[in-house]
């Protein structure tokens, strides 16, 4: 049976996630939980209910529609309604103002392929294609690979953006199915990854090494996060580590940004980096210069 994918967005006309004009498919679920993550919709594999208090007209229909009521919760300006929520979204169906949204939908390979092929002419005209992102797309590897196989039959370029934490057995099929892998390299120190994300940093770096041993086209993206990886010592360590690999792919730098601080409230969470100042253009340029001086092929972000 064709696998189902759980997707939180299909974004058209993107220009930063691979060559040409792209449709980016954002899949739900990620094992890393980077504190600076801006795709809060992608962190959980389950659907999420977003509630925007600014759009709420206090009609009370959500309270009435919720199967846990009467009595389980009231619209009191807190997130108490989330306790025990089954995420089925009756409240979303009755909300007249769009204050409630269910984030995450399941769709088949055929449905996804049909949806993205609407822009096939743009892909052909611009050398673009489809990028699978997230979340971590390779936590739904069967779905991504099945979509990629279908898209290959239509000559659509496929990129997969990954943070690298998934079973090693996916390497060969990823290399076969993807035209381009965009690998988010957080750090070259496995212990630093483990300390901040609480996951097996060594497994991530070993997956990158395994990909480097294939001939798949790779691009590394380093998101500069103050206090984690943007200092001179960390950047030099990344350069040294990469130069010891059998091949050194193109490296892109980008600053972390705080877009998520505005949407954290929609999901009843707090954004831990709300007070961290993102690196500016000068810091970005200095980091790029440093990496180039150490022999890395840094390309424009
Ligand atoms: S999604 Fe949660 S809050 Fe909304 S109706 Fe269902 S249980 Fe109630
Ligand atoms: S149904 Fe929508 S607009 Fe009405 S109270 Fe609930 S969230 Fe607010």
Q: What small molecules accompany the polymer chains?
A: iron/sulfur cluster
Number of distinct beta strands: 11
Domain count: 2
* Helix share, percent: 25-40%
Distance between the termini: 39 Å
What is the residue-averaged pLDDT?
94
Provide the structure class: alpha/beta
List the helices and strands and how they pair.
Layout: E1 4-14, E2 22-27, E3 48-51, H1 61-65, H2 90-94, E4 100-103, E5 105-108, H3 109-117, H4 120-126, E6 129-133, H5 141-153, E7 157-162, H6 170-177, E8 180-184, H7 190-197, H8 201-212, E9 218-224, H9 232-243, E10 250-255, H10 259-263, H11 281-293, E11 298-299
Parallel strand pairs: 2-6, 6-7, 7-8, 8-9, 9-10, 10-11
Antiparallel strand pairs: 1-2, 1-5, 3-4
Helix pairs in contact: 3-5, 5-6, 7-8
Bound molecules: iron/sulfur cluster (2 copies).
Protein architecture, described:
The protein is α/β, with parallel strands linked by helices. It folds into two domains: 4-45 and 105-299, Aldolase class I (TIM Barrel, Alpha-Beta Barrel); 48-103, Alpha-Beta Plaits (2-Layer Sandwich), CATH 3.30.70. It is built from eleven helices and eleven strands. The protein has helices spanning 61-65, 90-94, 109-117, 120-126, 141-153, 170-177, 190-197, 201-212, 232-243, 259-263, 281-293, and strands at residues 4-14, 22-27, 48-51, 100-103, 105-108, 129-133, 157-162, 180-184, 218-224, 250-255, 298-299. The strands form two sheets. Strands 5-1-2-6-7-8-9-10-11 form a nine-stranded mixed β-sheet. It has a two-stranded antiparallel ribbon with strand order 3-4. The longest helix has 13 residues, at 141-153. The mean pLDDT is 94. Residues 56-62, 75, 94-97, 99-100 line the site of one iron/sulfur cluster (SF4).
């Amino acid at each position: 049976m064709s696998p189902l994918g759980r997707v939180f967005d299909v974004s058209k006309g993107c220009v930063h996630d691979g060559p040409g004009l792209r449709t980016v498919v954002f899949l739900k679920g990620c094992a890393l939980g980077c504190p600076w993550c801006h795709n809060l919709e992608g962190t959980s594999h389950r659907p999420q209910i977003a509630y925007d208090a600014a759009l709420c007209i206090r009609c009370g229909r959500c309270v009435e529609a919720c199967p846990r009521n009467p009595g389980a919760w009231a619209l009191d300006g807190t997130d108490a309604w989330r306790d025990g929520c089954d995420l089925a979204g009756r409240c979303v169906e009755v909300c007249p103002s769009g204050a409630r949204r269910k984030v995450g939908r399941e769709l088949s390979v055929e449905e996804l392929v049909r949806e993205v092929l609407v822009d096939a002419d743009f892909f052909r005209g611009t050398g673009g294609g489809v990028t699978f992102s997230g979340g971590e797309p390779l936590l739904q590897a069967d779905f991504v690979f099945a979509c990629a196989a279908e898209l290959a039959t239509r000559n659509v370029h496929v990129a997969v953006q990954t943070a690298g934490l998934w079973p090693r057995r996916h390497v060969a099929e990823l290399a076969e199915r993807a035209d381009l892998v965009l690998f988010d390299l957080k750090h070259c120190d496995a212990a630093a990854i483990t300390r901040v994300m609480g996951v097996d940093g060594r497994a991530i770096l070993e997956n990158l090494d395994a990909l480097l041993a294939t001939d798949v086209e790779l691009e590394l993206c380093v998101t500069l996060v103050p206090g984690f990886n943007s200092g001179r010592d960390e950047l030099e360590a990344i350069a040294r580590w990469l130069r010891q690999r059998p091949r050194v792919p193109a490296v892109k730098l980008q600053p972390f940004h705080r877009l998520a601080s505005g949407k954290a409230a929609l999901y009843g969470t707090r954004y831990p980096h709300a007070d961290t100042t993102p690196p500016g253009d000068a810091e970005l340029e200095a980091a790029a210069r440093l990496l180039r001086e150490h022999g890395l092929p840094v390309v424009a972000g």
